[in-house]
Amino acid sequence: MQPIAARTLSDIDWENWKAQDPATLTFVIKEDHILLIRKKRGLGAGKINGPGGRLEEGETTLECAVREVQEELKITPLNMAFHGECLFQFVDGYSIHVYAFAASDYDGIAEETDEAIPLWFHINDIPYDEMWEDDRCWLPLLLKKKNFIGRYLFDKDTMLDYEIELLT
Ligand SMILES: COc1nc(N)nc2c1ncn2[C@H]1C[C@H](O)[C@@H](COP(=O)(O)OP(=O)(O)OP(=O)(O)O)O1
Fold it and tell me: Is residue 13 domain-resident?
């Protein structure tokens, strides 16, 4: 992995950009509450996020999104809807392309696993201070059932630049 000299989005050739890893995030939203996790390992360990992770060989983004929720919280998300894409470039050279889903219901009882602690929040009380910086930019759009594509440049945990396009 080669560090890149970018400080703004315009320093990156987005036309030919391809992430090292495709991944997913899923937000179960039910009766004005959202199910988040305290992530115990992997990229973003310690932060609050939606359950999710990297695609496995041969898997679709939807299959990955469902599997990751099952693995991390022992529940199955239902009524999955795709809402958008987040293209993350880090200045250390790493990149990850995240596909974001919302689910309006689930089967089972969410429990702690070795990957995640389940946490429910009212949708007006989302703990953005404990989440990745980009979440404030696009999670409100997903909550409004909008579709979006966003590009983000990070130096470790610090977001240097971003842009979001709303899709119709
Ligand atoms: C940089 O900004 C990010 N913001 C948000 N909201 N989420 C992010 C960001 N960067 C990565 N993520 C998400 C995307 C994925 O859901 C995870 C990373 O995947 P993880 O390291 O958990 O991958 P797994 O395949 O589950 O890995 P292990 O099972 O080996 O732990 O973070």
Answer: no
* CATH at 24: 3.90.79.10
9 in a structural domain: no
Whether residue 90 has its Cβ less than 6 Å from ligand 1: no
11 C-alpha to center of ligand 1: Å?
24
| pLDDT at position 1 | 84
pLDDT at 140 (0 to 100):
98
Does the beta carbon of 49 lie inside 6 Å of ligand 1? yes
Tell which one of 20, 27, 43 to mutate to probe ligand 1, the residue whose CB is within 8 A of the most ligand atoms.
Answer: 43
Stretches in the chain below the pLDDT threshold 50: none
Structure tokens at 108: 């089972």
- Would the pTM count as exceeding 0.90? yes
**What are 66's two structure tokens?**
């469902």
Q: How far apart are CA 104 and CA 89, in angstroms?
A: 30
Return the pLDDT at 24. Answer: 98
54 lines ligand 1 (CB under 6 A): yes
Question: What is the complex's ipTM, to 2 decimals?
Answer: 0.96
Question: Residue holding tokens 């980009």?
Answer: 134
- Centroid of ligand 1 to alpha carbon of 42 (angstroms): 7
Measure Cα distances from 111 to 9, 29, 73 in Å: 39, 17, 5
